[in-house]
Design brief:
The chain is of the alpha/beta class. It folds into 3 domains: 188 residues, FAD/NAD(P)-binding domain (3-Layer(bba) Sandwich); 112 residues, no CATH class; 104 residues, Polyamine Oxidase, Chain A, domain 2 (Alpha-Beta Complex), CATH 3.90.660. It contains 12 helices and 19 strands. The strands form 4 sheets. Strands 1, 2, 10, 11, 12, 13 and 19 form a 7-stranded mixed β-sheet that branches. The chain has a 7-stranded mixed β-sheet with strand order 8-7-15-16-17-14-18, with helices on both faces. β15 and β16 form a beta hairpin.
Amino acid sequence: MTLKHNTRVAIVGGGFTGLSAAYELAKQGIPVTVLEAEAEIGGLAAAFDVGGEKLDRFYHHWFTNDIHVMQLIEELGLHDKVTINPTNTGVYYANNFFKLSTPWDLLNFTPLSFIDRIRLGLLALRARRVKNWQELEDKTAAEWLKELGGESVYRVVWEPLLNGKFGPVAEQISAVWFWNKLKLRGGSRGKGGEERLAYFKGGFVALAEALAARIKELGGHIELNAAVTSIESIDNRWQLQTENGTITADTVIATVALPLIAEMSKSWASAEYLAQLNRINYLSNVCLVLELDRSLSSTYWLNVNDPSFPFVAVIEHTNFERAETYGGRHIVYLSKYLPHTEKLYTMSADEVLEFALPHLQKMFTSFERSWIQRHHVWKARWSQPVVEKHYSRLIPAEDGPVSGFHVCSMAQIYPEDRGTNYAVREGRRIGQRLAVTLSQ
């Protein structure tokens, strides 16, 4: 089908930011069209089928203090789809497994001296007391964590996690990024200090689909397989060229990665603006998903503090959501953030599995290849913006240099990090703001 129609607002990207913005505009009766490059909505929350149930391509959960997405779920009448459970968190260090779910687990974390265990516990409390995050902008995460907890705590606990997550750019990561992670996790605990997390039945894509259905009920349009190749300014309107045809709009909200927006906008944007859009660095992600016939361990989220292990964590999803949901399959995610130029990013699914197997077998000595029923590999080129020192100076403004052009992407979520909760918050906020302007 060839697209060729007019709309008041065209939104580039059908992830949670774009859908949330479209929802707010459609509620006010403003014609809106969402253009999604893929065959399904959701962006990084896209899913695939396992045992007749949708499973997230990339592991997802919410914290109990993720109020923005919870408010949206309540509005859509879907609160019964949310489950909140305590989770088991652990650390693999020096060929041993350690629980780290509660304050008591922390006191028994023997890789650190007793004094350093106390320092580690106090570090989290001190981090949560930081009110003015701007004070942290001129420090790296490494510098700040050493100040708070000392060299031993940093070397054993934080350095491996930073390197595992950010690899070659770990030393560039801002203290603000890490502060927010500590604050967020610390605020999602039960009365006994255990971490509690939330999940959406049917996967996060089920929420995206429900939101898309509501947008359509309100008169909005969602076009799939509609990758935008260019955005041009013509006679005070915007013309968006897609693989399926042309959309003309008064207003554009671009929600995809900033370098993609730069490529779409190069016919009209200044060299200075394009440079700003291209300035923020992104890491890619490779996610290996295993369907096993039995459980790998009793831990949901296992941080791997071993530099020889190539993945940042081992996430056994079915220690959070029951294996019966997926036809009895036990689901394990192995996630790796990396520059897109690294060899692992170019490997096939079979090659990634062969790469991972020796590392898994070393860690879980009873694990056998025969446990694997199926395996999948999902890749995301624009997965994680690299949050450097003074990141606030790098973020492009939401309102572009030409009237009617707006940018609202995960790279602009700050001081928080990317995630569906903040994607919903920012999408709804810009949708509400523009709805007021466009209704005048």
